[in-house]
Design goal:
MetI-like fold; 0% strand; globular; disordered N terminus
């Protein structure tokens, strides 16, 4: 046992330095076990995500079928004869049994076919692709601004908990999060677009516009998103940082004489940002597909506005494909957050049960 604890005692003078017996074997076994647990965890999460995605497809399809109105009537108008409406419904296939329609739709999706739009009588995929690209641009700009700003604000508030700057950041974030997007959107349009004329009112820069021109058009619609998300992210970062500062490992590092900046950078931030990563991932679906108000207000053809227009026009293939696309984006963002969480959490990597 002593040999296992201190393996170099046998040759105290001039002997070779030896590590404790079985140290590499135990450590390697621990990492292998932890890696296996991480892989199992991620596979399980992927399986649950796929099941959720399938349930979403069922809900979206059948919810779309029970919406009031008739696709043929929505396309031809109120003056069309019942015979013409019935003929168009037959051509679109909406008069078939629901299970037959669902199987035809889901099997087409599995083969990369999103169907034909009722409104445009053309494949859905180009419209979904263009709308997703536009929404990703707007969401990306908002993310680039609000994530560092929210984390920085939360950390500063936590390091000054109970002081004036903490109250200012907390109250400002909470107040900004409670303001609806259409209110803050109208305010920024009036102030920065109409009165000061610093930025264009419309978010659409037109086809062929340069990157700087597109950025100039996206600044105003990104402001309401930053205001809504700042308080949420800052609040989670503040709570995580306070918890990490009060942990045993942070106190131990401080007692060892490490500078406060080193303790915060090496020990506090890495652990305090774990819940914040999950929060950021959950907001991805909102930023990609929940921007109906912002996209409509700023005349921006994103996926949210496209889904809203499809629901208005009873364009079920467009509506179903759009909602399912948002579900896929949300699933991918959640899986990425799970991977980052496991990489930053040593207890999951090493398979610790503590």
């Amino acid at each position: 046992m002593l040999n296992g604890i201190v393996g170099y005692i046998g040759q105290p003078f001039g002997g070779r330095l030896r590590f404790p017996s079985g140290a590499f074997r135990v450590t390697g076994h621990r990492f292998a076990e932890g890696g296996g647990r991480v892989a199992t965890y991620l596979v399980r999460r992927l399986g649950l995500a796929l099941i959720t995605l399938w349930l979403l497809s069922v809900i979206v399809f059948f919810a779309g079928q029970v919406l009031p109105g008739d696709p043929g009537r929505a396309i031809l108008g109120n003056l069309a004869t019942p015979g013409a409406v019935a003929t168009l419904d037959h051509q679109l296939g909406v008069d078939r049994p629901l299970l037959t329609q669902y199987w035809s739709w889901i099997s087409g999706l599995l083969h990369g076919d999103m169907g034909l739009s009722y409104q445009f009588r053309s494949p859905v995929e180009p419209f979904i692709h263009a709308a997703v690209v536009n929404s990703v641009k707007l969401a990306g700009l908002a993310f680039v601004v609000v994530v560092p700003l929210g984390i920085l604000g939360g950390v500063i508030a936590a390091l000054n908990v109970g002081r004036g700057i903490d109250r200012v950041i907390s109250v400002t974030g909470l107040s900004a999060a409670t303001v609806p997007e259409f209110v803050s959107g109208i305010v920024v349009i009036v102030i920065f677009g109409v009165e000061l004329k610093w930025f264009p009112v419309s978010a659409s820069a037109g086809s062929g516009a340069s990157a700087l021109t597109q950025l100039d058009h996206l600044i105003l619609p990104a402001i309401p998103l930053v205001l809504v998300l700042f308080g949420y992210i800052a609040r989670m970062a503040r709570a995580g940082t306070i918890e990490a500062l009060e942990s045993d490992y942070a106190r131990t590092a401080t007692l060892k004489g490490l500078p406060r900046s080193v303790v915060i950078r090496r020990h506090v931030l890495r652990n305090s940002l774990l819940p914040t990563i999950t929060v950021i991932a959950t907001q991805t679906g909102y930023l990609i597909g929940g921007l109906v108000i912002v996209e409509t207000l700023f005349n921006y053809q994103g996926i949210g506005k496209l889904i809203f227009q499809a629901a208005q026009g009873k364009d079920f293939p467009m509506l179903e494909a759009g909602v399912l696309t948002i579900g896929v984006v949300y699933m991918i963002a959640t899986l990425i957050a799970d991977v980052l969480y496991t990489l930053l959490n040593p207890r999951l990597r090493l398979g610790s049960t503590g």
